[in-house]
Structure prediction request, 335 residues.
Amino acid sequence: MSNETPLWEVFIRPRNGLAHKHVGSLHAADEALALSAARDVYTRREEGTSIWAVRSDAIVASDPARAGQNFDPAEDKIYRHPTFYEIPDDVGHM
Amino acid sequence: MALYRALIELADDHLVLGHRLSEWCGHAPILEEDLALSNFALDVIGTARSLYAYAAEVEGKGRSEDDLAYLRSEREYLNCLLVERPNGDFAHTMLRQFYFAAFMEPFWQAALTSDDKVIAGIAGKAVKEMAYHIRHTGEWIVRLGDGTEESGVRMRAAVVALHPYWEEMFAVSDCDVLPDRAALRSVWEANLKAVFNGAGLDWPEPVYGQVGGRIGEHSEVLGRMLSDMQYLQRVHPGATW
Prediction:
């Protein structure tokens, strides 16, 4: 095991009913200190009601070099956007 | 004036500790703790402000919270000696904060039901802050005490250095709307023992307690701290920004 303090990604839920959103990262030795540090660094201005912290090395990330093959094929498939429907007035705001 | 005096004792504890914590700003070992220590400072300075404002009202001489904080001399400060202890290393600061929070959390808990509505109000806010300070500093004490050889040595040195300052916190203040300090000892010790056990720290042998803060007799370090803290108001009286 390395002597580096592990990096953690922090997710905050701003209000009940909303999803946790990534807000940044921090260094902490373990779970308890990571949550504590997340609270101190990222919720000082009433940003949240719940915190998730996850070890950065536990995240599997897509390879930026493969961004082309991953994402470009969706470019010309505009029919996947639900914009070809008439929305009845009664539905209101969607 | 028993209430005024008891409020000043409490307020001075919070302001002096808050200033000590603020001295870490920009100097903490890691960014995360730099923010945590500044948060702690702001928590206790916030409580100090409420207490000074109330003390000024009780006194009824037209003084403001700023007058009480910036225009009293060292001998007029009634804080306990623990809070004026220099920051030392991170272990010292964590332990000093833990001792303070482990005392104040049950104090405010008991004050929630005070007949004095202002005090009950201040307690409602402070009790949550102190609960968090206990948790955060307790986690660090466990990790430093039971961490590397170096961190263990430093943590044990902090226990030795701060041990003489326990006793003064329990000195009774004669005021019936504030909790009885002496009665908080068992909760305080239980808080400490849980963390000491986790940290592998020995319970310190009784020593001769250092007292004097409550009658304005301080260690030399307080004067230097106040000259720093009060500088601006002393040099530019009435300055605002």
User: Anything to note?
Assistant: The mean pLDDT of chain B is 96.
